[in-house]
Amino acid sequence: METLTLSFIYKSLVAGGVAGMCAKTTVAPLDRIKILLQAHNKHYKHDGVFSGLRNIVARENVWALYKGNGAQMVRIFPYASTQFTSFELYKKVLQNFWGQQQSLRGLTSAMAGSAAGVTAVFLTYPLDTIRARLAFQVSGEHIYSGIINAATTIFHTEGGLRALYRGFSATVCGMIPYAGLSFYCFEQMKYLCMKFLPQHTCRPCEKNTGGLVLKLPAKLLCGGLAGAVAQSFSYPFDVTRRRMQLAWMSEETRKFGMGMVDTLRLIYRQDGVIRGLYRGMSINYMRAIPMVAVSFSTYEVTKQLLGLDTGIAIKTG
């Protein structure tokens, strides 16, 4: 484990931010159609994934696939920087607390991942609300002209800072299992690859304490599977968060601007589990798997380029 110097923290922040921006840009079109379907936008509520993407281009233009991505980039760099760096810090604190016991490796990753996810969400949540509002808009029916206009309008007309944090409780409830499982699964799969399949999944690296680092295809595979597992457990909270964030976009959806529990109940009563709490799940697998794969892979590669350790020491014999 690297010593937690200022240089290490700075490089981790850079690596995390780059990883987040690459991952989110990769899946930005799927992010937008997911938001439109989750919140039942009147123009796209009867579409599927591919028909929705085609209709966005036909109704608006090809660049509309990336609507809201500017706000996303403003949000994602500090979010991903904070999440990955916090994970390293929390993991080090936990390891110092109960030692680097093999039996506690998974628990350490899960707890550090959950805490890192909550930390990052708390610091950047208003930008996520703004990004969702901008992505939900359809050309010709704009309410907000940009990031600053959206922030000031929401703040002044919907209840101040509380409005920018609408849906935060649902996000935290979803983030704890999502981030915890993401980091847990990735770290565990990374460890298993290095221990049992090093000849197929790893290459030597002198800078690494274990002498090995995962090859890029193995990184992508581990990250993709981690994303799939994590999203399966946390998705209903993601739907609830979006409905709450977008509740004030029209009169008929303001009923979703209640508390998290009430909104969950309303979604369930109105649309059920599959078409309500898990609405858009097929898109989410399509976006979450490559997003998490690119995110973890880019983070590991960038750390290597910056001279940071990305491996796990493997005991043999």
UniProtKB/TrEMBL annotation:
Its main location: mitochondrion. It comes from Petrolisthes cinctipes. This is Graves disease carrier protein. Transmembrane segments: none annotated. Pfam families: Mito_carr. Keywords: Membrane, Mitochondrion, Mitochondrion inner membrane, Repeat, Transmembrane, Transport. GO terms for biological process: transmembrane transport. The keyword Repeat applies. GO terms for cellular component: mitochondrial inner membrane. Solcar repeats lie at residues 7-93, 104-192, 218-305. The keyword Repeat applies. It is found in: Mitochondrion inner membrane.
